[in-house]
Specification:
Two copies of one chain form a homodimer.
Chain A: E1 16-27, E2 30-38, E3 47-48, E4 51-53, H1 62-74, E5 79-89, E6 99-107, E7 120-127, H2 128-133, H3 141-157, H4 172-183, H5 189-199, E8 202-204, E9 220-222, H6 224-227, H7 232-235
Parallel strand pairs in A: 1-6
Antiparallel strand pairs in A: 1-2, 1-4, 2-3, 2-7, 5-6, 8-9
Chain B binds a DNA duplex (27 and 27 nucleotides) through helix 5.
Chain lengths: 237, 237
DNA sequence: CAAATAGTGTCTTTGAGACAATATATC
DNA sequence: GATATATTGTCTCAAAGACACTATTTG
């Protein structure tokens, strides 16, 4: 039935291609995802992931598109951007006969000031527990958030902290607290320390601090080895 | 600089969206990937992954597109199709200013007869070791194959056999041999049996066989529990 | 010294690797 | 019985959980 198939591929109508961002941050002791309230139809006034349309004249790659859309929509490019999944279908977006969404996960520091982008009424940090429960989200963004949460938790479970997740320097107990907040459950102190040290991803600094009326903790940074974790495999976005 | 950004998103030119298939099979004791020789430019006469252009008038989803393209290009829809990665960029394909490729991994039974699709000179099963070494492949398909191989090996390592990987019934030693062929290295007999049985993915059948001049092995099938492994998470292609 | 958190010691459990021993077919 | 593979037994090791203990700071 597809007999005219020998023509050049470019003649076929192409779908609308968007890049959506699952931006995370640790705030008030729990993992939160950034939602934006849509200013226009479809799903007007509903909350969803910030995102934008791929611009083939501006974007060199999907990774670059994700950065640009971060800047345009929330005023900043999230760090540690990594592709999570690509979804597409005929009935995802009424504005186009076929719509594709390439979803990226990223981090921002909790204290960074976000700015409202175009076509957005408001931005809001939502705890991922709530976001998973709420069925009020636009499109299939609830599922996409769920995938992104699974993804970042898998990384943290293996002590692969996405770039931008950690402060420049930190103590092991601070690293553990952060991990617990991302994973959503407590971790054993001894086991965590053992695993982190065995992995040899830390460099001990010759300072000390973290006051309080108690013994201070040693300060560490990520070493170079742990930064090289991005292979070509993660780079081809 | 992007001041006219308030217009409807659909006015932007969209990229060429393709779906490429990394189809695997076990043959002659090793994991092989199916390559096709291109009949037309670009990369005329070079080998690459079989693939095709997304047809928004025919395909309900990317998963459906992968099935259709399987049928069109190699005469059969691979089983256990799962999305691996999406790549895109300005200079990937000279036929379009921007080209996207959504890569799916799938399996076919080794004895199935393939048929040559359009725009393909020939099909060839290439051991993944060779495919990884050859830098002769079209586009960035060498990298895509590498990703797909990592993906299927991760699954098999965790005893998650993609649909179509296993015959309907099999013995534990046969399952181990298959796993070793996919992983590319031998496994410990006792450990493998322990892990498989502990995972409770098998149902023992009341037959027996696998002749030869030796003790016969028990016959198993995958149970229903192990089939339910496809959650909504893997379904949204 | 009291309080509070950092860091260590160590017992136990679990899962995996190694390898020996036993079981059951065919010839 | 000889042979070949299936299946089990068991020793060892490595990683993780549990929990008690020690260390070091401030007030």
């Amino acid at each position: 039935m597809t007999n005219k198939d020998n023509s050049e591929p470019t003649i076929y109508p192409m779908p609308l291609v968007r890049v959506d961002l699952a931006v995370f941050s640790i705030q008030e002791g729990c993992l939160k995802v950034l939602l934006s309230q849509r200013k226009e139809a479809p799903f007007k006034n509903k909350w969803g992931l910030p995102g934008g349309v791929l611009r083939i004249d501006l974007d060199e790659s999907f990774h670059a598109a994700a950065k640009r859309i971060g800047v345009e929509r929330i005023g900043i490019a999230p760090t540690g951007l990594q592709q999570v999944v690509t979804v597409g279908g005929a009935k995802r977006d009424p504005r186009a006969p076929w719509a594709v969404s390439v979803v990226f996960r990223g981090m921002v520091k909790p204290d960074l000031q976000l700015s409202l982008g175009k076509r957005i009424n408001a931005l809001e940090w939502r705890p991922v527990t709530d976001a998973g429960a709420s069925s009020e989200l636009a499109f299939d963004h609830r599922d996409l958030i769920e995938l992104a949460v699974i993804d970042i938790r898998n990384k943290v479970r293996e002590l692969h902290f996405p770039e931008g997740t950690l402060p420049d320097t930190f103590t092991i107990p601070e690293l553990q607290a952060l991990s617990e907040e991302i994973l959503g459950h407590p971790l054993d102190k001894v086991t965590f320390r053992r695993r982190v040290l065995a992995k040899e991803i830390l460099v001990e600094l010759s300072e000390e601090l973290r006051g309080g009326a108690h013994r201070p903790a040693k300060i560490y940074t990520l070493n170079s080895k742990s930064m090289k974790a991005k292979t070509k495999l993660n780079a081809n976005n």
